[in-house]
Write a structure and sequence with these properties.
The protein is mostly beta strands. It has helices at residues 14-20, 157-162, 228-232, 279-284, 349-352, and strands spanning 10-11, 24-27, 31-36, 42-45, 53-56, 64-69, 74-79, 84-91, 95-102, 117-121, 123-124, 130-136, 140-146, 153-156, 173-178, 181-190, 199-201, 210-214, 219-223, 237-244, 247-256, 259-267, 275-278, 293-301, 307-320, 323-333, 345-347, 355-360, 365-370, 384-385. Strands 21-22-27-23-26-25 form a six-stranded mixed beta barrel. A six-stranded mixed β-barrel has the order 12-13-17-14-16-15.
Length: 386
Amino acid sequence: MKTSMLATLICLSAPAFAQESLPVIRATSAKAAIYMQDRPGRRWNIEPAQKLDVFETPKMATQEQIRFKTDSDSIVFTLKPGTHKDFVVLLNDKDSCLTRIQSPALLDFSQQYPALHDTIPMYINEYNTMYIAAVLNGTDTLWLNFDTGSSDITLKEETIAKLKTPLDLYRKPYDLRIGTRHYTSPVFDTKLSGHGTEGRFGWNLFDGYVVELNYDKGIMVVHGQLPKAIAADKKYTRLPMHYIDNIFLVRSSLQQGKTKLPFWFLYDSGYQRTAMLDNDLLKETQFPAAQMKELNRVIMRDGRNKEIPVITANLEQLHLGNYTLKKVPVQVQTANKPLAGLNIHILGNEVLKRFNTVLDFQHNVVYMKPGRYFNDPYIVQKPGKS
């Protein structure tokens, strides 16, 4: 997960910002924190020697409440996408620093002409890895996983070593041709990727577009706007997106016995199993996880090759919008959470592949309807390491 954070500070005299009628908060320490809804706090340094202090939030689908907190004061306000809020931090009653928190505008390429409908062959293997062919820098054709749980381009270390063009990792943006269109992104490295792939690319390459994942036909289609046929199809259930630190979540429900609870789930096509449940979140909400029959215990690994011990247990029902999956072998993580600092559940591609899906990154909605894999049996791993 990557976020955009710019830090330049503007220092003004007290009379200057008084004329602007900006809110003023005080601090006796240069250490501060920024809190967004449903997110852990971000550390922030107040640096009077700089000129402009700008924090750019990750993408927000709707307005959100923001809190900026110093050691002795705080300010709370509501921020809409594409807007900003200015205020002054007065450090030790002498250094006056103008601070801005801004949100990026929502992208929308629906007015492009001619209308875009770019169709790309899409594949899924026995490990539930969904992947396509893409061309990096016009020279290297790579098999890449479309991983909605990540952003930008991430390539395996061994893949990077074999590229025809050397890369300046993390900094310089590179060209990635997917279908007939070109997208730009910095490149990051990783030790592992989905089975049979050389790396992955994230959802943000398609921000402002509409992406159709049709598992029945084996195609990905990048649309300039939501097709009318999809909007009119009553079989699709609609799940609004909620963004946290450049990943998006959808609302779904877990049910065991008479207990049915809604949760936010990371929509993660890069996770190959059904659903990974956060043990701390289950305890916090008093979900009766102990009633789920244990099937096995395995050790899984994330993209950094870090071990994640999980228990696989049988969940009675998983509800996604108007649809219900029954007797789902879910994974319960017991340590080394894949998303540090966040207690959230994760929907994986063994569930997601059961639906033909449309990801509308203009209106921030996921459309899902059952497809050819909806009633396929689930894979239950053998105990050990995966």
